[in-house]
Amino acid sequence: MRVALFAMTLLTSAVPLVAQDFTPPAEDESPPTSVRIGLFGFSSKLGVDFRGINQAIASIAIDVADVYSDRVRLRPSFEIGAGGGLATYVGNIEMMYRFLPDTERAVPYIGFGLGIYGQTGCGPAPGCPKLMPQFALGFELKFQNNMNWLIEYHGEDALRRHRFFVGLATRRS
């Protein structure tokens, strides 16, 4: 009985331990210090290629990584062109720099990368498939909460091929 009374006295008079005083860590609002992988945006665009046969172009792009900043993004995209009796394909990987954060009303951006160009009957065609440097210049205008209009120029093959796009993009909130 004395042991039980002694244990009860110890338990009721114990001071709170430091380990029981949990303080959650503060949320880190600083920009990323490394590469963050995720789905940061998706866009679909329609446009025109002004090289020779003037093709209609459909394109999709996905922002898949933030690179040391939430304004520098890795963006693969795929373009399909049709018209003039020829189908063309371009797969791009671009590094995009957004001059303003996604929360702004209008966000201009610039990008550089590489693309692989192909077309129907690519095997016997000279210079096909072809690795091309890419250049992108555009801006997004806020349409709804996470939806933006976009206008974009793509200079491909060292600015020998010019493509203009209009489309919609979704961005993280």
Summarize, please:
With 173 residues, the chain is mainly beta. It is built from one helix and eight strands, in the order αββββββββ.
Domains counted in the coordinates: how many? 1
Give the distance, in angstroms, between the N- and C-terminal Cα atoms. 63 Å
Number of strands: 8
Task: Give the neighbour order of strands across the main sheet.
Answer: 1-2-3-4-5-6-7-8
CATH fold topology:
Porin
The number of helices is: 1
Which regions contain 5 or more consecutive residues with pLDDT less than 50?
none
How is the topology of this model organized?
Layout lengths: L1 H11 L22 E15 L5 E13 L4 E12 L2 E13 L7 E14 L10 E15 L2 E10 L4 E11 L2
